[in-house]
From TrEMBL:
InterPro entries: Ig-like_dom, Ig-like_dom_sf, Ig-like_fold, Ig_C1-set, MHC_class-I_related
GO biological process: immune response
Domain (Ig-like) ranges: 19-108
Subcellular location(s) per record: Membrane
Statement: the UniProt record of this protein carries the keyword Oxidoreductase: no
Key words of the record: Disulfide bond, Glycoprotein, Membrane, Signal
Protein name as annotated: Ig-like domain-containing protein
Cellular component terms (Gene Ontology): external side of plasma membrane; extracellular space
Amino acid sequence: MVPAPGMWLTPCVSSQCPPKVSISCRDAPDGSITLSCHARGSYPRPIHISWLRDGKDILAEKDSSGILPNADGTYHTQSPLEISLQEKDRHRYACRVEDSSLSEPALVWGKGG
């Protein structure tokens, strides 16, 4: 259902709105961790998340959640990265978010080394 113009959409929908980027961390019983990069409140729709280890691009083993709509007309996505017990203290990890509303990619550092 599309609301009537000006009903409840954020001001960003009429132009561009940069995402709010954060990383959450979940510990597993085996000592490994899962980092999740979250990009919320973005407009327009295309959002790309990638991961870096010690400043170099790596591939996440799991796919992102896809780009999903919010009730206010903006979008969100998230991408998990599993880190083994052996790797988590030896490296630094960051997620990079690219979006047309950003003048340069957003880089957020997560737990690790």
